[in-house]
Amino acid sequence: MEAAVRTLLVWCPDWPVVAAEIVAGVPGAEPVAVMFGNRVLACSEAARREGVRRGLRRREAQGRCPQLVVVEHDPGRDARAFEPVVVAIEGVVAGVEVIRPGACAVAARGPARYFGGEEAAAERIVEQVALECAVECQIGLADGVFAAGIAARAGRIVEAGGSREFLSGVPIEALEEPELTDLLKRLGVKTLGDFAALPAGDVLTRFGFSGALAHRLASGGDHRPLAVRRPPADLTVEETYDEPLARVDVAAFAGRALAERLHDRLAAHGLACTRLGVEAVTADGQELFRVWRHDGLLGAAAIAERVRWQLDGWLTGARRGRTAPPTAGLVRLRLVPDGVLAHVGLQPGLWGETGAERDRAHRAFSRVQGLLGPEAVVTPVLSGGRSADDRVRLVPWGDEREPERPVAVQAEPIPGIETVPVLERAVAPPLRLDAPRASHLRLVGGLRAEPSNGVETSGADGFAMVEVRAGRPRRAGRKPAALPPWPGRLPRPSPAVVLEHPLPAVVADAEGRAVGVSARLELTGTPATLTVGRREPVAVTGWAGPWPVDERWWAAGESRRRARFQMALADGRALLLTLAGGHWMVEAVYD
């Protein structure tokens, strides 16, 4: 593993509360809670003494502390109030990177050499922030931004090379990945040290790329270095204005146009921004510069938002007890993509990647999200799963369209198993699906066979009995997929419509007896009719299955055991059904 950069991180505790005190005059010494989504985002020390904790609902927090002062969360307010703190730190060290309002980082090598040691540099920064801004802060020093952030909460300096040992006793919740954390705790992994002890290859196979990145952090590494490479000079965008920009709204409008130009230029080179430098020059020659760091990829809206925050901070100059705006209006703005990553291989959207139609659609959807919330507009993303209802993840518009469970394309039904057709479809019930897709269904005993090329069949494509024997692994003609296949997933074709609420059904044989599946996965009868709800029975012209699924058998409250079937009906429909606990359900409809 590549050694992480020695990092000094400055952390201001309870920053949303401190920002509300600086900007809005909220009494920080009193019980104060900053709310976001009707839950406590941050609270003051006085509120914690009354039992208020982060994540509590508003009503419960006020029940524990009736005199609680409630303030709504405002990211712009936090950014504006943090600007003087960054200015104070820049008076001591250079190259400050803002991680988020309330936290910033800098490479520790330069300050340590200048001030005669890491501890001396940390004391100098704390003293400077206290004198200039009257704000308390804590310093963490370790290898990498993640370890330095954990160290800052304890005010510790971790020796070089000791980040892994330092993190070993930290609770697994420090990863701030709720789903991954919950799963790891149920598997017995309680600390970062337990997680780091797992083999990296096994973690990647089981938890995907997000789990692998979290494993790297738990091992004392970093998912990317603090100082990424500088992009070519032609990626920088700037604009000069004849009339100085003295008002925040005018400057923000100009900054948004510049942000869209930067995003389009980066997209043309297949790049995305991870660190953004905002530079401004005033009418009398004063130069202002700030670097914003982001854990993900900055889109056009995210770039424009940070430019607006920064311009607001410069022009209002929010400080405790005094203001320090620029000496004159801004006459030049310059955006520098200080850190970029390759951003290629994305599927174009419904409206393409460029053009007025895409911009209009984006503005319309963003407006709907602003009125109704981010979950009001979502787009589907395919991910790994065994059933039709868990292979689609709905992502809010504007977020990165990453699958929740990445999975590679599985070329064969079962790796290392060769399937050979031995009987024609004439001896089996016919299965009618769309002709281009039906050849994928050659099934027996829950195993999917290769298409029966060369086998003569009568009528439409159906399925054939197969003989399964062990075969030599096929030599790959290309590099193997980086991701493993998802075991137990449904074979193609995929259903066109997945029902939000499955419909109850009854499958009966020719004598009208209900059809079931034994413990050995054998049907108790041949499906002849299907009855959905209270409708009339419809004849079954073809079927395939069962495919058994026994999920989460180790968790009594979450286990699910069922068998899946594909059935074609006499009226032309093709359905996906499941049998669980003796009850049939219609889950999806094929096109």
From TrEMBL:
Q: Which UniProt keywords apply?
A: DNA damage
Q: Is the keyword Zinc-finger assigned to this protein?
A: no
Q: Does the keyword Chaperone apply?
A: no
Q: Which InterPro entries match?
A: DNA/RNA_pol_sf, Rev_trsase/Diguanyl_cyclase, SulA_CellDiv_inhibitor, UmuC
- Domain UmuC, by residue range, is 31-156
Query: CDD domains given for it?
Result: PolY_like
The record's listing under SUPFAM superfamilies reads:
DNA/RNA polymerases
Family, per entry: Belongs to the DNA polymerase type-Y family.
Q: What does this protein do?
A: Poorly processive, error-prone DNA polymerase involved in untargeted mutagenesis. Copies undamaged DNA at stalled replication forks, which arise in vivo from mismatched or misaligned primer ends. These misaligned primers can be extended by PolIV. Exhibits no 3'-5' exonuclease (proofreading) activity. May be involved in translesional synthesis, in conjunction with the beta clamp from PolIII.
User: Mind telling me what this protein is named?
Assistant: DNA polymerase Y family protein
UniProt organism field: Actinoplanes hulinensis
